[in-house]
Write a structure and sequence with these properties.
Elements: H1 2-8, H2 23-44, E1 50-52, E2 54-57, E3 63-69, E4 72-76, E5 81-85, E6 92-93, E7 98-103, H3 107-114, H4 124-140, H5 147-174, E8 185-189, E9 194-197, E10 199-200, E11 224-225, E12 230-232, E13 237-242, E14 247-253, H6 255-264, E15 266-271, E16 276-286, E17 291-297, E18 309-315, E19 320-325, E20 330-338, E21 343-344, E22 351-358, E23 364-370, E24 373-377, E25 382-385, E26 395-397, E27 404-406, E28 410-418, E29 425-428, E30 431-434, E31 438-441, E32 454-456
Antiparallel strand pairs: 1-32, 2-19, 3-14, 3-18, 4-13, 5-7, 5-12, 6-9, 7-8, 9-13, 10-11, 14-17, 15-16, 15-18, 16-17, 19-31, 20-25, 20-28, 21-22, 22-23, 22-26, 24-25, 26-27, 28-29, 30-31
Helix pairs in contact: 4-5
C-alpha cells in the first residue's frame, strides 16, 4: 500500500531520442537541394543549342509539270466516211504522202476482212517501236494521272492497226474494181511536211504568251484520240501535223525563280517520261495572272509529239559551301571607320584604333583600344567595328596623329554567333543560296566561318558576347 502511494506520486515522462546528425545525412541534404535548384534553373532558362558547321549543298524542288506547245496544223475531213490511217503516229511525212483513206460506204473494211491476208510479222524496227512505247509509258506513269493509261491504250491499239493497214493498203492496190468497192475509197495525202499525230485537245493554236492558270487545270482537259475505222463527217478533225522542229515547254514559277532562270539563259532539262536530257533556252513570260518560263528546244519534238503535259526536272548547278540553319542567321549593327583610322598596334600587334580620351585633370590624351574587325568594304575602304567599344561622337586619330575622324556612320552585317571561344562572337557570312531551312555560305572568308566551327543554332536565344555554358 505504501509502495503504491509512492509510485503514484511520480510522473512518467516519454523518452525523447536525440537527433543524431551524421556527415552522410548532411551531404545528402546538400546534394538534394543542389539538384532541386539546378532543375528549377534549367526549366527557367533557355538552353543554347550549338551546331557544328559542315560543308554541304542545297537541292531545291526543281520538278515542274509543263505544257508542251508546237506549231500544229489540224487537218479536217473533206468527205464523210470511215477513216483508216496508214502513216504511223510520230512519223514524218512529206507533202503529198498518203496519211489515210476514206471509205464512203464501209464496204472496203468488210471486203478486206473477208480476205485471208495471212499472218503479219513485225520487223525488228517495228518491235523496237513497241518496246520503246511501253517503256516510256512505264517510266512516265503516275497514279494521280490515271487518264494517261487510256492514252497509252489507244496509242498502242492505233500502232497495231496501222501496221496491219500497211498490208491492207497493198491489197487495195492489187485489187481491181471488185463489186464497186475500190471506186468509193478516197486517198488523202498530207498537205505539207510534218510529224503526224492522231489526237486533238483544242490547244493546237495556244501560244506561250496566252498561257494562264486555267490551262494547267487538267480536271477539265479533254484529249480526243482518233481511232481507225471511225466514222467522220465533213469538217471533222482527222489528224494534225507538227510542222516545225522548234517547240517549247511552259512552266509556272515564282518571280524570283523566274528571274534567276532568265539570268542563266540556257538550262539543262531532264524529261521524267524517258530520262531524256536537252538544253532549253529560257524566256521569261510575265503573263496576266502569273509568271511563266518558256523553255525552247530545237530538237526532240518528235519524241514527245503524243504529249501535251510533261513532267520535267531542271538540272541546275548546286551551290556548295558551308551549310548552316536559317535560325542561326542574325543581323548586327556596326560603326563604319575609314581604313586610315584603323591601326595595328606597335607593341603587341593587336588590331585596334587610336581614340581621344581625357585624363582626370581634363588633359586630352590618346589611347589605343584593341578590338576585332568584323568586315572590310573594299569599295568604300571602310572597316566594320563593334559598337560595344565605340560610341557615336568618338574622335579617332590616324596613324600620323594629324587627321581625325568622328564616329557616326552605321551599317549592318548578316552573320552568326560563333561559340568556339566559349562566348557568342559575331561572324559575318556571305550567303550563296538559301531555302526554307538552310543556307549555303561562302567558306574560308577573312572574317567568316570555317568548317567544323561551332555556332549557335538559334540566334534568338543568346545576346552578343554572352558566355555559353557547355
Amino acid at each position: 500500500m505504501a509502495q503504491s502511494k509512492k509510485n503514484a506520486g511520480r510522473r512518467i515522462r516519454k523518452y525523447r531520442k536525440p537527433i543524431n546528425l551524421n556527415i552522410g545525412m548532411i551531404i545528402f541534404v546538400i546534394i538534394f537541394i543542389y539538384v532541386v535548384v539546378c532543375v528549377f534553373l534549367y526549366f527557367r532558362s533557355n538552353p543554347v543549342m550549338r551546331y557544328e558547321v559542315r560543308e554541304g549543298s542545297l537541292t531545291s524542288n526543281n520538278i515542274y509539270r509543263g505544257i508542251a506547245l508546237r506549231e500544229e496544223t489540224v487537218v479536217t475531213a473533206d468527205s464523210a466516211g470511215y477513216i483508216n490511217y496508214y502513216a504511223r503516229e510520230g512519223e514524218r511525212v512529206a507533202n503529198g504522202d498518203l496519211v489515210y483513206t476514206v471509205d464512203e460506204t464501209g464496204r472496203l473494211n468488210e471486203y478486206l476482212e473477208s480476205l485471208s491476208l495471212g499472218e503479219n510479222t513485225l520487223s525488228d524496227r517495228e518491235l523496237t517501236e513497241f518496246r520503246s512505247e511501253i517503256v516510256n509509258f512505264m517510266h512516265g506513269y503516275d497514279n494521280h494521272n490515271f487518264d494517261s493509261t487510256y492514252d497509252f491504250k489507244y496509242s498502242l491499239k492505233n500502232t497495231v492497226l496501222k501496221l496491219a493497214n500497211g498490208n491492207m493498203l497493198q491489197s487495195i492496190n492489187d485489187m481491181s474494181d471488185v463489186e464497186g468497192v475500190t471506186n468509193v475509197v478516197n486517198f488523202r495525202n498530207a498537205p505539207t511536211t510534218g510529224v503526224v499525230a492522231y489526237w486533238i485537245d483544242g490547244y493546237e493554236d495556244l501560244v506561250p504568251e496566252a498561257v494562264t492558270k486555267e490551262v494547267f487545270d487538267e480536271k477539265d482537259y479533254e484529249k480526243t484520240q482518233k481511232i481507225n475505222n471511225q466514222l467522220a463527217a465533213v469538217g471533222d478533225a482527222v489528224y494534225k501535223l507538227s510542222t516545225d522542229e522548234n517547240w517549247s515547254i511552259v512552266i509556272q514559277v515564282d518571280p524570283d525563280r523566274g528571274a534567276e532562270m532568265a539570268d542563266k539563259g540556257y538550262i539543262k532539262v531532264r524529261f521524267l517520261k524517258n530520262q531524256y536530257e536537252a538544253w532549253g533556252q529560257v524566256s521569261l513570260l510575265n503573263n496576266v495572272d502569273c509568271t511563266y518560263v518558256k523553255l525552247g528546244f530545237t530538237n526532240s519534238m518528235v519524241t514527245f509529239v503524243s504529249d501535251r503535259f510533261l513532267d520535267i526536272e531542271l538540272i541546275l548547278e548546286e551551290e556548295k559551301g558551308l551549310k548552316i540553319p536559317n535560325s542561326s542567321i542574325v543581323e548586327k549593327e556596326f560603326f563604319l571607320v575609314p581604313e586610315e583610322f584603323v591601326s595595328v598596334a606597335e607593341k603587341d600587334g593587336e588590331n585596334g584604333i587610336y581614340r581621344q580620351s581625357y585624363m582626370e585633370d581634363g588633359t586630352i590624351t590618346i589611347e589605343f583600344v584593341a578590338m576585332d574587325f568584323y568586315s572590310y568594304n573594299s569599295d568604300s575602304k571602310k572597316y566594320y567595328l563593334d559598337p560595344t567599344f565605340l560610341n557615336a561622337g568618338d574622335i579617332l586619330y590616324a596613324m600620323d596623329r594629324q587627321n581625325t575622324f568622328v564616329v557616326s556612320e552605321r551599317a549592318t552585317l548578316i552573320g552568326v554567333y560563333n561559340i568556339n571561344k566559349g562566348y557568342a562572337d559575331f561572324k559575318q557570312i556571305n550567303i550563296l543560296y538559301k531555302n526554307e531551312e538552310y543556307a549555303i555560305v561562302k567558306a574560308n572568308t577573312q572574317y567568316g566561318l570555317n568548317v567544323y566551327d561551332y555556332i549557335v543554332m538559334d540566334a534568338a536565344t543568346v545576346r552578343d558576347e554572352q558566355f555559353i555554358n557547355e
